[in-house]
Amino acid sequence: MSAPSGTEADFDHAAAELRAITFRSDLVVREIPAPGGVAPSSIAFAADVRPDADGESIYGTGRLVLLHDPLEPDAWGGPWRIVSFAQAPLEPEIGTDPLLTDVAWSWLIDALDSRDAGYHSASGTSTKTLSKGFGGLASEGDGAQIELRASWSPEGPLAPHAEAWAELVGMLAGLPPGSEDIAVFGARRTIRE
């Protein structure tokens, strides 16, 4: 499907396309309530990498929101906008890498490009956080986390954009494409906010 424009029927078709995607087996994706007031139509998804029986993931998580506004906001340059979020805990030694934030952004761009997911007006932030527990949390030791927040205006089919986001969530969690049945060592449990 090419990225449609104008009508509610176009949005309904796009939402159905995203709901029909089959993601890698160790990424649990579910539809969640979309943020209100951002666009006339929106749909949102959450992803957790290899969640436990309670639905919690020590590996990584992400969110994807597809926004649709037939009035085509100037900043979007079209009727569609994708907003994404992905985060994962890291070993502290990896968190100190000065190129980590650049690499995280490049993984998103590479994932989009590898699927021929056309886009424009991309923007975002890549943030690494280092932490050290004190007092009652001293036993948790040192920790690190990478987080990527990005948005872009899609061109062409919308499914490749969601597939690229899913790849990014896996990459940040240390699971490159093709690693569905491979063990992950050294995952750190972090406190969710």
Order of helices and strands: HEEEEHHEEH
Q: How many separate helices? A: 4
User: What structural class do helix, strand and pairing data support?
Assistant: alpha+beta
Q: What is the beta-strand fraction?
A: 25-35%
Cα distance spanning the termini: 37 Å
Note the quaternary state here. Answer: single chain
Protein name: DUF3000 domain-containing protein
Set out the fold topology.
Layout: H1 8-19, E1 27-32, E2 41-49, E3 61-68, E4 80-90, H2 92-95, H3 100-114, E5 118-132, E6 142-155, H4 159-172
Antiparallel strand pairs: 1-2, 2-3, 3-4, 4-6, 5-6
Helix pairs in contact: 3-4
Protein model, in words:
The chain is of the alpha+beta class. The chain has one domain. It contains four helices and six strands. The protein has a six-stranded antiparallel β-sheet with strand order 1-2-3-4-6-5. α3 runs antiparallel to α4. It holds the Pfam family DUF3000.
